[in-house]
Amino acid sequence: MPDTGNSQTLRLRLAELMAGLDGAVREKIRLSPDRSVLDYSREIAGNLPFMALAAFLQENCRTRAVPHPAAEFALRFAGRGGETETGRTEVQRRLVSLLAEAGESGASDVHIADMGAYGLVRFRVRGEMRPAAEISGTFARRLIAVAFNGLGQQNGTPGFSQASRQDARIVSRSVLPPGVHSVRLHAEPIQSDTASRGTFLAMRLLTGADGVTGSLGERLAALGYSEDQCRLMASLAGSRGLTLLAGPTGHGKSTTLRHVMESMVISRPDQSYLSVEDPPEYPMAGVRQIQVPTSGGDRASAYADAIAGAMRCDPDVIMIGEIRWPAAAAAALDAALTGHAVWTTVHAADAFAIARRLTGMLTSAGVPDPRETLFGQGVCAGLICQRLMSLNCPRCSLPLSSLTGEARRSLLPEELEEFLAGAIGPSAMGGVRLRNPDGCPACGGQGILSRAAAAEIVDCRGAVGRLLARGEDGAARELWKRNGGVTIAGRCLGLIAKGLLDPVTCGHRLGGLSDPDSV
Asked: Do residues 499 and 433 touch, judged by C-beta distance below 8 A?
C-alpha cells in the first residue's frame, strides 16, 4: 500500500531501519514490493531491531506482519529475501532517490558527510549549498559504500575503503536522473566527531545538456561571454598553439571547452579532433575522446603518455581535460610546439596567474627557459579565466532605489555601496537590483535563478605575450587593460549595473569585489 505522510522521510527512516538489521536477521524477513506484507521467520520475533522495523511499517504503511515457522519460511523464501529486497538494494534505492531529488532541484553536486554519530546530505544548487537531509552515521557510511561498490565503476581499486581517497563514476542509465549522463564520485577520509574515521563523498552530476547550440559566438554569448569576448574566442579557436582556461572547480571550464570543440567540429569539419580526458566527462559530437588508462599506475605519467599518443593519431586540434602534473604540462607544451592547436584547463586564480602556474610546472618538469618557451612565437595563444556568477531572480529581485534605511543597509553595506557608486558611476546606480533574501516560488526561495560566466581573456599573440615571456607580468597586465582588457571583477560590475547580479553575492563568489587591483 502507498506510504502516508511525508514519503521521503518514510523512505529514509525505512532504509535506516533495514540497514540496522543484522545480516542473519535480514535473511529471515521478506517485505513485499508494495510494503503491504512483511513475512518473517518466528525465530526472530524477539529481535529488537526487527520489532522496531515491524512497528514502523505497521504504523506508517499499514503493513501486515505474517509469521512463519522457520522451516516453512526457509522453503518458501529461500534465495528471495534478505539482501535482494531489504539490504543493499534498499540503500541503493535511497541513493538513487537522492540523485533523482538532486536532478529535480537542478543541483550540480550532492555531498554526503559521515561524521561518525550522524551524517549530512547537502545539494549544491546554482552554486550554493542547501541542506537536504540529516541521517545516522551508520546509514551515511552505507550510502557512501554502496555508491562505490553497488553503483560506481572504479579505476584500479577493488572496492570502497574508508581509509583512502577514491574516485569512481556512476554511468548506468537505470539509476541516473533524466538529463544526467554520468555522476563523478570522489571520497576523502575526514575527521569525525568521534574517535572513528569519517568520510566525505562529493558526487558531481554531469549533464552536458544546457540546450546551447549554434556557432561558438552564439554558444559563448548564451553562457555569459560579452560580444567582444566572443569575437576574441573565435579568433583563438582559429589559431594554433596552446590556449589555457582556468577557474575554480565547478565553474564551467569543461562546459566551455566542450562548446569550443563542438563548434570547431561544425565550422571546420575538414580537421581531426581528439581529446585526452581522465575520464571523459561530456560526450562531444565529432571528437574522438581518449580515456587515460590510469588503472594501477602513475596517473601523471599515464596522462603524459596519453597526450603523446594523441599526437601520433594525426590530430589538428587536441583538447586535454586538465593539466595537474608537470609531466602533463610538458606534454601539452610539446604538442603546441609541434604546431597543434591545444585547448586545456588548469587551476589558477586569474588569467595572468596561469602564466605563473604553468611556469612552475614546466620548471618542475625540467623544461629549460620555460617562460621564453611558453610565450615564444606561436606557442601560447591565449589565457582565459572564468567564474560562474549567480544571477538575480528577475521576478523577485529588489530595486536598490526602492530601499531605504535599515532595509537598505541589511542588504547592501554602506562601504560597498560607496565603492559601487565610484566604480560604475552614480547615474548607473539606478539600475542596481539586490537579491531578495526571501526569494519567491519561481526561484525556490533562493533569490537567484540562473548562473552566467564572467570571464577575462588575454590574447598572448602580440605585445602582451612578449612581456610575459620576459616575466614582466605587471606590465603585461597594465598593457592588456589599456588595450581594452576587462577583468572578471570588471565584467561583474557591468552585470551589477544592469541589475542582473547582486553586489553582495558577487563579492562572496569573488572573495571581495572592492579590491582595486581586481577591477
From this structure: yes
Locate 149 and state its grid cell: 561498490
Rounded Cα distance, 259 and 214, in Å: 9
CB 141 within 8 A of CB 118: no
Total number of residues shown for the chain: 519
Q: Which amino acid is at 128?
A: E
With 0-12 CB in 10 A as exposed, 13-18 as middle and 19+ as buried, what is 426?
A: exposed
The pLDDT profile of the chain, 519 residues, written as one tens digit per residue, is 334 346 667 777 887 888 778 777 887 888 887 788 898 888 898 888 899 999 999 998 889 999 988 766 766 665 443 333 334 477 888 898 899 999 988 899 999 999 988 999 999 999 899 999 998 888 999 999 989 887 876 655 556 777 788 888 898 877 888 888 889 999 999 988 766 789 999 999 988 656 788 899 999 999 999 999 999 999 999 999 999 999 988 898 999 999 999 999 999 999 999 999 987 888 888 999 998 876 556 778 888 889 989 999 999 999 999 999 999 999 999 999 998 999 999 999 999 999 999 999 999 999 999 999 999 989 999 999 999 999 999 999 999 999 999 999 999 999 999 999 999 999 999 999 999 999 999 998 999 999 999 999 999 999 999 999 999 999 999 999 999 999 999 999 999 999 999 999 999 888 777 654 555
Torsion of CA 444, 446, 449, 451, to 10 degrees: -140
Q: Is 452 helix (H, G, I), strand (E, B) or coil?
A: strand
Which residues make Cβ contacts (< 8 Å) with residue 99, sequence separation at least 6?
110, 170, 175, 176, 177, 180, 183, 203, 205
170 and 147 Cβ atoms separated by less than 8 Å: yes
Task: Decide: 499 and 400 in contact? Cβ < 8 Å.
Answer: no
Strand bridging mode 197-206 / 107-114:
antiparallel
Q: In what order do the strands lie in the sheet with 166-170?
A: 128-136, 118-125, 107-114, 197-206, 182-191, 166-170, 153-154
Amino acid at 20: G
User: How many C-beta neighbours within 10 Å does residue 440 have?
Assistant: 15
